[in-house]
Amino acid sequence: MIAGASTGLPDSYDSQSLAAWRLRMQELRERLPFDQALDEIRVEHGDEAYEWVKESYDIAREMLNAWGFPVGDYDFDLLSEKLHDYQMIQEIKRVTEEQFPLSDWEALTTLEERQIFLQEYMDAILPIMGLENIGLRPISFDPTIGQANWNGFYNHSFNHELGIPARTTWINPTTIDPNNEGWWFWQPSPTDSYKSLQTLVHELRHAYQNVAVDNIRAMENAPNAPVVASVTADAWDHNRINHLDTQTDRTTDESDTERYQEPGQTGNYTYPEYRNQPLEVDANGFAKNEVWNKV
Ligand SMILES: [Zn+2]
Fold first, then answer.
1. Nearest residue to 239 (alpha-carbon basis) of 216, 206, 262, 271
2. In a domain, 29, yes or no
3. Which of 29, 81, 108, 187 registers the highest number of CB atoms within 10 A of its CB?
4. Which residues surround ligand 1, an ion (CB under 5 A)?
C-alpha cells in the first residue's frame, strides 16, 4: 500500500499517513456526490471493497435510524468510517493468516505459550487499529456459576470495586489452555480455542469504540483518532451508559421464556437483546468480518 497515494490504509497508523488518508477522503467529499464517491472507491479498491462498504453503510444507516440516531441519505463520515473499517479488517485478516495461523496455535502445548502467542497477536493488531496502551490479562471466571466458557471482556475505566486496571482486555485462560480437560458440558478443541484470536479482536474493538467516544466527547481532533462518524459515536456513547451486561437487570419482562440468564447471574434479557446493542453489533461484525447485522 502506498501511503498518501490513494485511500489505501495508511502504512502505519502514524499521524502523517492517517492525516493523508483523511485529506484524501475530504477531497472526495468536496469533489464528488455520494454515488460517485462510492464509484471511486470501487475503482481504487475493487468490487469486493465496494460491495462491502456499500452494504455496510446501508445497514449501519438503517440501524442507527432505528436506534434513534438519525442519518440522512448522504453521510460522508459514515462512508469513510465503513471504508476504514473494511481496510482494518482486511489488514487484520492478512496478518492473522500470514503470521498467526491455526497450525502455529495447534503446535503450542502449554497455556503460557498460548498466552504469549495472544500477546504477540495483540501487539500486531493494536497499530492496525490505531490503539495503544491496552493491556491483556488472564481472568478466571467461576465455573460453578456457569462462567467457565466465558471468553473475555474489555474494561475501559479503572474499576475500583474489582480492583481492575483501565484499558484492559481479559481472556479466559480456560478457553485457551491446551491441557484444559474442560467441563462436563464443554471442552475447548484447538480449533475452538483458536477463536480466542477473534475474541481478542472483538474486545479490542470495544477499546476502539471507547477511544472514539472519548475523542469526540473531548472534541479533540487527535490526528490518530478513530475514523468514526459522530452519529456512530453518539449511538456508542448512549449504549455505553445503558449497556446490558450479565451482572445487571435491564429488562423485567419475565413472560419471555427465551430470556438469557447466566446461572447465578441476575442478567435478565434475551440473547438477541444483548447481542443487538449498538456496541455488540459493531464488535461482532468487526471481529467476524461479517457485515454488521442484528441476530
Ligand atoms: Zn462485546
1. 206
2. yes
3. 81
4. 280, 283
